[in-house]
Amino acid sequence: xxxALITGITGQDGSYLAxxxxxxxxKVHGLRRYxxxxxxxxxxxxxINKKINKNFFLHYADVTDxxxxxxxxxxxxxxxxxxxxxxxxxxxxxxxxxxxAQVDAVSQLRIIEVVKQINPKIKIYQAATxxxxxxxxxxxxxxxxxxxxxxxxxxxxxxxxHISKVYREAYGMFITNGILFNHESPxxxxxxxxxxxxxxxxxxxxxxxxxxxxxxxNSKRDWGYAKEYVESMWLMLQQKKPSDFVIATGQVYSVxxxxxxxxxxxxxxxxxxxxxxxxxxxxxxxxxxxxxIDPYFLRPNELHYLKGDYSKSKKILGWKxxxxxxxxxxxxxxNELIE
Length: 339
Ligand code: NAP
Ligand code: F7E
Description:
Helix content is about 40%, strand content about 20%. It has helices spanning about 10-25, 45, 50-55, 65-75, 90-95, 95-120, 150-170, 195-205, 225-235, 255-265, 310-315, 325-339; strands at about 5, 25-30, 55-60, 80-85, 125-130, 175-180, 185, 210-215, 220, 225, 245, 255, 270-275, 280-285, 290-295. It has a seven-stranded parallel β-sheet with strand order 3-2-1-4-5-6-11, with helices on both faces. A four-stranded mixed β-sheet has the order 8-15-14-13. The protein binds NADP nicotinamide-adenine-dinucleotide phosphate (NAP) and ligand F7E.
């Protein structure tokens, strides 16, 4: 039986990847932190399912703690490691930059070094990110586009990306960087903009909140569906040679578009009024203000536009996105309203 180890298993991607690998017949091990506030929310469905939970194991460890990483890798003997653990919030990385560097940069080195010592044949997936591109002057970004990170998060991830390449080239280790563009789902953390919008709409409908406070409505992202992005991680580790791959939809929508589409799901048409910090989103029928701008959510440095070219992944991995923007919003809203 194949054995995989997932760091960040309690997060959005880690939990979908666990589902995917269990379905493929893997024995799945994951790291959980003592300090997690809600460590098993995304894993509850696995833990209660007797058919699959016999192949599922959680271990207390932290990617900033070398001894715990060494112990788990030595005990578990994985053939594949998916390093998804991160302080993954870009805005938060401006508030905890040093901590972000420890978790998002140095931890990848830590894992690679431990693997090199225990069994350098273990394949490693590193969660790189479209944030590496920063405000690129290219209209569409691919594996050849140069990086220009603009946040402590993306600078830390740039280290993770390069150190993976260094060990790949210097020691022939199988380490692949997945350059994934934004991907969302009902399991997205509550402080990321898509989940904040869908959860906010539910609160408004239930009369528990009057409006949603947001930051920059005009930034544009290439948003895909997390559940289908995790398959690409696995595909990357099944190749003969390690490489780096962009995973994206090739379509771009703004935060404003997301707000409009999500409200449309509950039959509310949003009209916009005012400018800058005074701009508001209004229910076009009742004239109630449903969206306000709060400067707290503006970033010291904003990444304005991302659009990914996934043609290399399509050609080599045979991967392409199925769920596009409108379907993604529908999946998230549908789930929000039944939760
Ligand atoms: P997420 O939901 O924020 O999950 C992050 C995971 O990392 C959680 O399981 C968290 O555990 C764990 N973690 C944080 N610090 C840790 C530590 N010190 N030791 C061990 N585990 C730790 O992130 P995601 O959206 O699933 O993303 C997965 C990975 O892909 C991340 O590396 C992210 O940076 C990267 N990425 C994400 C996107 C995206 O759009 N989602 C795009 C590109 C790249 P707790 O539950 O204990 O907090
Ligand atoms: O912001 C704007 C915000 O925090 C998206 C992470 O998974 O994807 C994610 O990073 C956009 C930004 O995601 C709010 O300014 C407006 O322009 O949902 P987000 P992100 O920063 O793109 C990349 C690829 C990763 O690698 C990261 O790990 O939305 N925005 N108003 C807001 N964003 C938030 N969070 N909250 C707001 O109120």
